[in-house]
């Protein structure tokens, strides 16, 4: 699986509306708090015009985009960490996602009830932050006694114990765990706790129709994507050809969902590369800076373990020259070793031992 993102927020802020638009899956979106009682998981193709252009040249039988998995859970309310509402039960469904997308209600609509009575993005974000922090604090306090005991027997666990205690103090002070500066090694030490507030966080401001496409202020200093879930829901019902027209009529350049997936890629430092095998052109997701060998591993561990070399054509060369053979003839197909860093959009063919 590629990237996975958990959607959180108060009830009735438009999470399921957004999710439905994203995935085209019919999940229940009605004007009723707590209508989402099952976790809903949807897989969304990553929009990428370059994939279509590569496919137009390679003419494969099949074109496979990279994907992002979204998980829609029931709304959280104040007190969720103490069992209020249904939300807390579902937090476990997003423990293993790569990132959290928090939907914040900006739209005013007298027909859609707001759990606290008034649209107040700052207060809502505060409520959700408090609940996620409390949920994490509960997790940490559950593991600490066991860890203390183990650390007494195994001195090697001392750094982990010390770190988890620091995380606990941070959470107890009301801060997200991500506010604690950690080295990559430290982050790996606490990865098994699956803390919700350690995950990269992205805000979606669910705005009124007339504010779609306008930039809301960054919430809490984090990236904020303005989306009108209602427009997205309408867009999702249209044929691809009609979508572009509708976007233009709304004064938008791309759908909110496209900007959401793009922002998530940016936030997580991800990029794509392409393979053009005889019958399939496919996009793969890798972290920026990934080596050829690591990129091969995303396809299959055999590719990584038996890596011999990679033939790499830059996306621009591939498109301008018109394919592998043409790139080779023009001296633009490079044979690279395992440490070579793959760039965004590279067209790659791996050679490996089996
Ligand atoms: N006017 C307006 N209404 C919206 C918008 N987005 C969602 N709604 C409406 O708000 C109501 C609740 O939307 P949902 O998507 O079910 O909300 P939710 O966040 O999933 O709620 P829970 O699952 O209960 O936590 C529905 O009636 C939607 O049609 C929007 O952008 N504008
Ligand atoms: Mg819902």
Order of helices and strands: EHEHEEHEHHHEEHHHEEHHEHHEE
Number of strands: 12
| Fourth-level CATH superfamily of the largest domain | P-loop containing nucleotide triphosphate hydrolases
N-end to C-end Cα span: 23 Å
Please list the strands of the largest sheet in the order they lie side by side.
2-4-1-5-6-7
Main sheet summary = 6 strands, mixed
Indicate the CATH class of the largest domain. Answer: Alpha Beta
Cα shape: flat
Describe this structure in words.
- Helix 1 runs parallel beside helix 7 (about 230-235) and helix 4 packs antiparallel against helix 5 (about 160-170).
- About 40% of the residues lie in helices and about 20% in strands.
- The strands form 3 sheets. The protein has a 6-stranded mixed beta sheet with strand order 2-4-1-5-6-7, sandwiched between helices. The chain has a 3-stranded mixed beta sheet with strand order 3-9-8, with helices on both faces. It has a 3-stranded antiparallel beta sheet with strand order 11-10-12.
- The chain has 13 helices and 12 strands.
- The two termini are about 25 Å apart.
- The radius of gyration is 23 Å and the shape is flat.
- With about 350 residues, it is an alpha/beta fold.
- A hairpin with a 2-residue loop joins strand 8 (about 270-275) and strand 9 (about 280-285).
- The chain has 2 domains: about 1-45 and about 65-270, 3-Layer(aba) Sandwich (Rossmann fold), CATH 3.40.50; about 290-350, Roll (Ubiquitin-like (UB roll)).
- The relative contact order is 0.14.
- Mean pLDDT is about 90; it is low at about 25-35.
- It binds guanosine-5'-triphosphate and magnesium ion (MG).
- The site of magnesium ion has 5 residues, from helix 1.
- Guanosine-5'-triphosphate binds near residues 13, 15, 109, 228 and 229.
